[in-house]
Amino acid sequence: MSNRDGSCTMIVSDTSGDMRYRTSILAYYPYALEFLLIYSVNDRSLFDDVKRFINDIKNCNTKRPLIMLAGNKCDLKDQREVSYEGAKNVANEFDIFYIEVSAKTGFNTECIFLLLCQAILKDLNSRVK
Q1: Cα(80)–Cα(65) distance, rounded to whole angstroms?
Q2: Is residue 59 situated within a structural domain?
Q3: CATH code, 65
Q4: How far is CA 1 from CA 19, 45, 95, 97, 112, in A?
Q5: Which GO MF terms are attached to this record (predicted)?
Q6: What is the number of domains present in the chain?
Q7: pLDDT tens digits for 10-30?
Q8: Is 24 among the domain residues?
Q9: What is the pTM of this model?
Q10: What is the DSSP letter of 6?
Q11: Radius of gyration of the CA atoms of the chain, in A
Q12: Is residue 76 included in any domain, yes or no?
């Protein structure tokens, strides 16, 4: 992924968030520098797990990783179970970035990876200085 500040290569691991794989998921936490937590805006139960994931990340990782929260399926306006404001409030509570995306329409999908790339480059530059 490239932007005006440089380029970065990202390895994306989809852990699915399924609690049956909690042990495997927790194995990633101490080593990752960035986390992108994605939930479906039309599934309240997935959103209800977000706080637990954020707390687990913060408790298992001493590097203060960047955490971004994304609400997917924002194109399903009539099926929405999680409001933008509710998700934004959770993001503010944990001081993390929030964005809504739609994998179906492509809305904000490239944007979120550009934002991650910028954050990675900014973080790496600050560690070098």
Answers
A1: 29
A2: yes
A3: 3.40.50.300
A4: 30, 32, 25, 19, 11
A5: GTP binding; GTPase activity
A6: 1
A7: 777 777 666 666 677 777 777
A8: yes
A9: 0.84
A10: E
A11: 15
A12: yes
